[in-house]
Amino acid sequence: MGDRVKSVTKKCKGCGTEFHPKQGRLETNEWCSRECFYRSHRVYTTCRTCGKEFYHLKGKPRKHCSRKCWDGSEKHPPNFKGDKHTSGKGYVYIYAPDHPYVKDHPYKRVAEHRLVMEKMLGRYLHPWEIVHHKDTIKAHNDPDNLELWVTGHPNGEEVAQIYIKEIFQLRTRITQLETELEMRVN
């Protein structure tokens, strides 16, 4: 512990008692103890999830009394109206608690571009299927702007382009085989 200067006495801002501040903190120390500092900086608030009253420090506001209430508020907040949520990366997510791929996810949200593609196809997407934005704007989820890709193909290729390449390769091989067959016959 630091040495206390006995000749200097100060009056505590919180409780009013006189105390001797530590050396080196004569100008900055205005409270007799940490407890007194925290007691004078408490702000009481009502938890938005459970309604319980709790306190936080001035300048560090909180909306929930605990991590459990904060997690619960994200799952189904009391004022939830089915609004969209935009992630930090720019993707739009929609609350869809009945979707099969969110059963273990705490927030029950699905990317909007995947929901749009599922509606276009009339089925749920497989985990290996990727929905690509043609204009690279992640929040632009119009059906005309979306392409279905599959993992395992080079980046930048649409599924239709892959099939076109495969068809072209097969036609080229068929032409080669026909040429070889004609040479054998003649």
Chart the SSEs and their pairings.
Layout lengths: L9 E2 L6 E2 L14 H7 L1 E5 L6 E5 L9 H9 L8 E3 L5 E4 L13 E3 H10 L7 E5 L12 E5 L8 H27 L1
Antiparallel strand pairs: 1-2, 3-4, 5-6, 6-7, 8-9
**Radius of gyration from the CA trace?**
33 Å
- Record the strand order, biggest sheet: 5-6-7
- The percentage of residues in β strands lies in 15-25%
| Number of separate strands | 9
- Assembly form of the protein: single chain
Total discrete domains: 3
What sequence of helices (H) and strands (E) makes up the elements?
EEHEEHEEEHEEH
Poorly predicted ranges (pLDDT <50, ≥5 residues)? 76-81
Instruction: Return the average pLDDT rounded to an integer.
Output: 78
Give the number of helices: 4
Structure report:
This protein has 186 residues and is α+β, with helices and mostly antiparallel strands. It folds into 3 domains: 59 residues, no CATH class; 72 residues, no CATH class; 30 residues. The strands form 4 sheets. A 3-stranded antiparallel beta sheet has the order 5-6-7. Strands 1-2 form a two-stranded antiparallel ribbon. It is elongated and about 120 Å long. About 3% of the residues have low confidence.
